[in-house]
């Protein structure tokens, strides 16, 4: 199975700051990576797919990048509503696997 | 607008078989490249992909393959999941989602396994 090592496990930041969350894949997965946001009591929401493509209706403050087998989600100009848990997903091979999640708190 | 809704028993006893239904609208399983998947999330924990049905092929998480069966009723716009030999560790919120990038999700249904 492909392991997705996500970091940090949690972070706290102030509005208008920039934060970055990373996922390290245990092997090459190309651009078969997505990012999701999950708010308390809600279903996950797709933010980024194909490593860098913004999903429909997602603000441009969210962006994804790739460097080799390391993938990053950057959130610029943090807003209070960005609070939640963020997950990466690889769908390069079966079984599809998620990162362990990053809990983001807005101060 | 694609919408999905999961339904299930809510609670069941250990060793029983879980039957879940995902009813969807706004798309069709007859559409090329359209598929549905099941995932789950224990309370306070991460996400786990279980199974997908896509283009008449079924895909399963190998770690759970022996216990899972995914099927579809195209005319009813439903995808079903059967999960045998349920244990308390299988207690989770079960989600259905559109296959591929999981762009659309249902609200989830909580399944509790307890005697």
Q: Which two chains have the most extensive interface, and how many residues on each?
A: A-B, 21 and 18 residues
Radius of gyration of chain A: 13 Å
**What's the story with the biggest beta sheet of chain A?**
7 strands, mixed
Helix segment tally of chain B: 0
Question: Into which percent range does the helicity of residues of chain A fall?
Answer: under 10%
From the N-terminal CA to the C-terminal CA of chain A, the straight-line distance is 37 Å
Number of strands of chain B: 10
Basic shape of chain B: globular
Shape of chain A: globular
Determine the mean pLDDT of chain B: 95
Multimerization status: heterodimer
Low-confidence parts of chain A: none
**Numbering strands along the chain, what is their spatial order in the largest sheet of chain B?**
2-10-9-4-5-6
User: What is the structural class of chain A?
Assistant: mainly beta
What does this structure look like?
The complex is a heterodimer of chains A (107) and B (115). The radius of gyration of chain A is 13 Å and the shape is globular. The model of chain A has no long low-confidence stretch (mean pLDDT 98). Chain A has strands spanning 4-7, 10-13, 19-25, 33-38, 45-49, 53-54, 62-67, 70-75, 84-90, 97-98, 102-106. In chain A, strand 4 and strand 5 form a beta hairpin. Chain A is built from no helices and eleven strands. In chain A, strands 2, 4, 5, 6, 9, 10 and 11 form a seven-stranded mixed beta sheet that branches. Chain A has a four-stranded antiparallel beta sheet with strand order 1-3-8-7, with no helix packed on it. Helices cover 0% and strands 50% of the residues of chain A. Chain A is an all-beta fold and 107 residues long. In chain B, the strands form two sheets. Chain B has a six-stranded mixed beta sheet, with no helix packed on it. With 115 residues, chain B is an all-beta fold. The model of chain B has no long low-confidence stretch (mean pLDDT 95). Classes of the chains: A mainly beta (107), B mainly beta (115). The A-B interface holds A 34, 36, 43-46, 49-50, 55-56, 87, 89, 91, 94-101 and B 46-49, 59-63, 95, 100-103, 105-108.
